[in-house]
Design goal:
homodimer, alpha/beta, TIM Barrel, eight-stranded parallel sheet, 46% helix, globular
Chain lengths: 300, 300
């Protein structure tokens, strides 16, 4: 029986804020996470444990964790690039980690200074330990629908990486349209290949709003059986590959579509609107969510 | 056999510009239409024949027509609210007209100062004459997916209006999501009802980008068999029911999705980009097309 509800993984505090120019005070980040918890999100990507010289937006990750762990039932996957990041996340009290690789060697080298296979070797250095420590691991695969450097990427490579991640013990895999070029036909083809090999209930889709198509891609994914979607409050984040373009699909838009379709998400839209308004005010920007903007316009 | 191509009806010069605050010189409008013809559009809604005291943006419709009729193979449906408008359009040389009503009485009264049935009586005063004159008639039905005043509207009323319009001799009907609240499930339900009674090949869908969902709604419509879509170059137009919200779905976004899905539209995307850039510059605004913005960003 197909589940008539979906899980929304809120990636705004990490994937969103990391791509914003403004560096926010830690109190603002904590308040944002509190508002998102209050809105009903059960999985929130709060931060990453990376070198602050590379990603200054995330330099406060340890302190942040000490403040958000009060939300005991919420899954907070901490993004870690390597063993060092993992140990730091463990030290901060994180119980879930997220690791990442890509289907494009060029992209992966530019993003993590490692080829795809080097990234797998890095995972081998700490993921089995993490699982032994009782951690739950989420795996991201980037550039599944296209690469800014290599163009088209390989579905077979995606399948190989899924298999590798599963062999490490990863319990959820998020397939990323890193540059926002996916289309519904491609989504259908890719999910049909996935289904031949894996249990779709562990697969998430991560779409960007670069070309205005994320809700069409999410609809196509839902029709093919996907029930987990990553999105970002108020559409936080940008697209480094197209100046001025939108980044992550906005949680506001995704949740509005599902609710209008009578598909449950567990999120309170009024409370989400409050969180969006809060963070956009803090960043001093308009945001990319059309639903948020229309909602603001109706209220004014 | 399902046709693997679609017709895009470009409504920017009328439906789009009518909702922009800036009133453009006629030369700019003519150049826009020339650029759209060059991009490959075969149906373009160029203007309306309405009282200039109500819609000052369209006061130059007669002169405009005399300049665009050089494009002999292009269908230019002129929007007319009544017999007077029809006679003026005939005088200007228009060969196609478009008429409009709605599934909501309140909306129709506010929009045209006539109840639904009064609007049908008005049509009876000139549409049969128009057809006798050899005109081709397009019919719009607004608020099919929801009304800003009445909320939900009736599918049965939509079906009744389709039947009435067809009995007048209308050869294409465009179903409008006037306030941009449609969702893919609703789209599916409505098209399935339409199919029971009418030939879908004469039905067009007219979506707005108010909530970021138009491409998902277009995908759902396509899956149900619709092959004609209205859209507006660069997303021209706004939404009078939600301040600052987007209006018509952008032709740029619609055509990009179809081309990525390997569905033909007959439009040259580079030339469309040129038209979008031209009109946005003339209006001094950014536009609401995410694809256009991403494209500009990649080029810069």
């Amino acid at each position: 029986m197909i589940k008539e509800e979906v899980k929304i993984v809120e990636v705004g505090p990490r994937d969103g804020l990391q791509n914003e120019k403004v560096i926010l005070p830690i109190e603002t980040k904590i308040e944002l996470i509190d508002l998102l918890v209050d809105a009903g999100f059960t999985t929130i990507e709060p931060t990453s444990f990376v070198r602050p010289e590379y990603i200054p937006q995330m330099a406060d990750s340890k302190t942040l964790f000490s403040s958000i762990l009060k939300h005991e039932d919420i899954v907070f996957p901490a993004l870690v690039p390597n063993k060092r990041g993992f140990l730091n996340s463990l030290d901060a009290g994180a119980k879930w980690i997220a690791i990442f690789t890509a289907t494009s060697n060029t992209f992966n080298k530019k993003n993590t200074n490692a080829t795809i296979d080097e990234s797998l070797k890095r995972f081998d250095e700490f993921v089995p330990d993490a699982i032994k420590e009782g951690q739950t691991v989420r795996g991201y695969i980037s550039t599944v629908f296209g690469c800014p450097y290599e163009g088209e990427t390989s579905i077979d490579e995606m399948l190989r990486l899924c298999e590798k991640l599963i062999s490490f013990g990863v319990n959820e895999i998020s397939l990323g349209d890193t540059i926002g070029v996916a289309n519904p036909n491609q989504v259908q083809v890719i999910i049909q290949r996935l289904k031949e090999h894996f249990d779709l209930s562990m697969m998430a889709m991560h779409f960007h709003d670069t070309e205005g198509m994320p809700l069409a891609n999410i609809l196509a994914s839902y029709q093919e059986g996907i029930r987990i979607f990553d999105s970002s409050v108020a559409g936080l984040g940008g697209c480094p590959y197209a100046k001025g373009a939108s980044g992550n699909v906005a949680s506001d838009d995704v949740i509005n579509m599902f609710h209008k379709m009578n598909i449950k998400t567990g999120i309170d839209q009024d409370k989400l609107h409050k969180a969006s308004r809060f963070i956009l005010k803090a960043l001093g920007k308009e945001g990319s969510s059309k639903f948020f903007q229309a909602n603001e316009g109706r209220k004014s």
